[in-house]
Design goal:
By secondary structure, the protein is mainly beta. The chain has one domain. The protein contains one helix and seven strands; from the N terminus they run H-E-E-E-E-E-E-E. The strands form two sheets. Strands 5-4-3-6-7 form a five-stranded antiparallel β-sheet, covered by helices on one side. The chain has a two-stranded antiparallel ribbon with strand order 1-2. A hairpin with a 2-residue loop joins strand 6 and strand 7. The chain starts with 15 loop residues before the first helix and ends with a strand. The model has no long low-confidence stretch (mean pLDDT about 95).
């Protein structure tokens, strides 16, 4: 579990499967059967072609750092968590996820660095997806 604060997710009918999988340590994402894009943030339709019958796939949870910043001055619950890394991770399946990089020194993060999903429990039955660097 990271030392970062975590807002508790409020699953809705369209995202309940995603959050249940995260609580089990799995990354479940929708994919459009027509145009084959993998969708982030999970939703019941394709944002590209508007098809409403997406299928759910288990993603690898692997990706690379697309962009990042080191936050050195936080507010609210994040005030005591600084410094921390806020990053876009490009999943191997395609979408980019806004997330945190954890379990490493912020200065060690690099663009293109390989990362893997970790599931940060925030309460029983709920976890947030964050990422940590892969072992070299």
């Amino acid at each position: 579990m990271s030392s970062l604060p975590a807002e508790l997710p409020e699953p809705g009918p369209d995202t309940a499967g995603f959050w249940a999988a995260a609580a089990d340590g799995r990354l479940l994402l929708p994919r459009c059967p027509a145009c084959e894009i993998v969708i982030w943030y999970p939703r019941p339709f394709c944002p590209r072609c508007q098809r409403a019958d997406v299928e759910w796939i288990e993603a690898t949870g692997a990706g690379s750092v697309y962009s990042f910043t080191i936050v050195r001055r936080g507010t609210g619950a994040y005030q005591r968590a600084v410094p921390y890394v806020l990053a876009y991770v490009e999943l191997d399946e395609g979408p980019r996820v806004l997330t945190n990089i954890v379990d490493t020194e912020p200065e060690a993060i690099r663009i293109g660095q390989r990362v893997t999903a970790v599931f940060d429990p925030v309460r029983p039955g709920a976890a947030l997806i964050r990422f940590r660097p892969e072992a070299p």
